[in-house]
Amino acid sequence: MFSTKTILVYLSVALGLFQHFADSLNDGPHVYWQNDTTAIVFYLCEDSLETEVHQVADTLRFDGFCTDSLTEYVVPAKPPSVQPFVVDGIPQIFAISDIHGEYEAFVDLLRNSGVVDDKLHWSWGDGHLVILGDTFDRGVSVTECLWLTYRLEREAEEAGGRLHFVLGNHEAMVMYGDNRYVNDKYLQGIVKKSRIKHEDLYGPDMELGRWLRSKNSVVKLNEVLFVHGGIPPWFAERGTTLEDINEATRADLDFKSYELAFGDSLRAVFGGRGVFWYRGYHYAMQGSYPEATPEDVDAILDAYGARAIVVGHSEVDQVEALYGARVFAIDVPLKELGSLQGLLLRDGSFYRVTGTGDLEIIE
Question: Residue 134: left (phi > 0), alpha (psi -120 to 50), or beta?
Fold first, then answer.
């Protein structure tokens, strides 16, 4: 039988280990394509920069060599292609937004909803999963979230489904070097140790960077629009197409701050009135734009041939319908709820999916 003193010692050790892992600066893998056939894989692992150089013919395969030694990474040498942004005939769609590096909450929701199995492999067949922006910033497991999403994208396609990673304002911020919300784990860890700027970890020659640069900023699935912030009424008024939005985003992701300051076209997409930052479905932005009216929402839907819009970015108490179920808001407060939530579209109906995987119809 253990004495009280022995139990306290064990608890102290356990708490110490927990704190060690909670404070860990470990990060990776990051994959730098030095040229078409040479890839450098690197981590920050236990305060040391660990690297491997691989000669690659068509696919880079490697086992993780930090705390992820049981994970195999599969990375095609060929840059990823751009996915279709309009798809119809999808049997079911599951959307989640604003993960912000909270890996455990992300995994719990996917597993409890049946999107992945116990080993975190795709188990949703020909369904489509939408990650609606803002995987980056704030949390301490951004890299893990990105690589899980990266793998599930491949597994989904192999199973006849799809994963749509839609860019949010925090993806754009990271790529153009706005580090206001980057967790200190990264700035004091891999950035400091490697002397690589945080934005350069996601540059066009990095695997995660070139993958992100292939993504859309708005998709239309089963006549439902998915966009991180929202499509403002003036986009519809000007005849801006979904293709215009996506092409402009991908073309300009590597802009400089002075270009944003003085470039009207850049501000139209990346500024506070663009699709990444727009909050008009929720409230007015003083001095910038009013709250959208029901007529505004109808005009947007008509312009893009859609029946509803799904948005993240602006936090709501729970996944909910706005404007008579023409807008669905899915950015929820993880700390207050204790879990993330998702939105399920199946058989023409919309469901709130709780952190435990329960379905609640939204009418």
Answer: left
